[in-house]
Amino acid sequence: MTGWANVPVTEWVSGWAHGWTTGWAAWGGVAGLGIGVGLWLIRAGLRARSPGLAERLEPYLRPRPATSSLLHDDARGRPGPFGLLVELVGLPSVAERLERLGSPAAGLRRRLDRAGTGQSVEHFRARQLTWTVLGLAAGLALALVLALVRPAPVVVLGALVLASGAAGYVACDQALTWTIRRREERMLAEFPAVADLLALAVAAGEGPAAALDRVARGTTGELSRELTRVVRAVRAGASVPDALTAMSARTGCVPLSRFADAVVVALERGTPLAGVLQAQAQDVREAGRRSLIESGGRREIAMLVPVVFLILPVTVMFAVFPSLAALRVGF
């Protein structure tokens, strides 16, 4: 008690204020960031609720679609998990800004079709924005922790935050690429069986459209979904060659493109379709076998890395160390 009584009031107040500012500065920054983001979302929501002149006139001036509604994918109109963010932010301006940094809208639309997610470009831009904001938040939290543990220059901390945001943006794009690759691998794995089923159906006397319908209803998987879209387009009035060509352009997979081109040529020239389908299935099996051999060769080379750089040096050390020890004892 005597020690506290001898301390001047001004020094005690200044020490308490210094401790309070150093201890709560980081939490104050986080709270200020949260308040700023909340106010920005409220402003964006209020702006989205007030439609402009173009939005009020759009329902009356919108052209009616010339094709059947069966040709449109219902999944593309679903809001998805990022629909609330799209409605709040509105995303036309944000999408344009992200389009300058990433791929154009046409290329992104094609990649989304290849991924088979059913998302629109605006929803994917909202997802990219969310991943970027999460990366910035993680970088800001890490920068605050580093600043509290050990002081660092502001430029380094700012670069860390920006790098985290860029990592989130790139990670979202890479996740889409990984989804496309996995879907194409599944489609290639399903293609030989589907082609054989189509060949059997055609050889049994069914037409191309009926064979596609039967196989699409009797199978499951990514390729079956694409065949379902082809059957839907044929029922809506499109021809089988046009529907297969659209599937080839939509998937972007080389074996499927060859399959669609071969079927189109066979239908146009009157070539027996069953033989063409069986040949396409055999070609895909041979391509899969070659890819497995190439993958095995690459993995075999990768297995040499630990052998050469880890096991072999340790073996040499065990072989040479006794001789070095004997020479050292002799000297």
Automatic annotation (TrEMBL):
Instruction: Give the record's keywords alphabetically.
Output: Cell membrane, Membrane, Transmembrane, Transmembrane helix
Renumbered to this chain, the signal peptide range is: none
Residue ranges of the Type II secretion system protein GspF domain? 195-319
Regarding the membrane, this protein is recorded as: Multi-pass membrane protein
Superkingdom classification of source: Bacteria
Compartment list: Cell membrane
Matches recorded under InterPro entries: T2SS_GspF_dom (IPR018076)
Quote the PANTHER family the UniProt record gives: INTEGRAL MEMBRANE PROTEIN-RELATED, PILUS ASSEMBLE PROTEIN
* Stated name of the protein: Type II secretion system F family protein
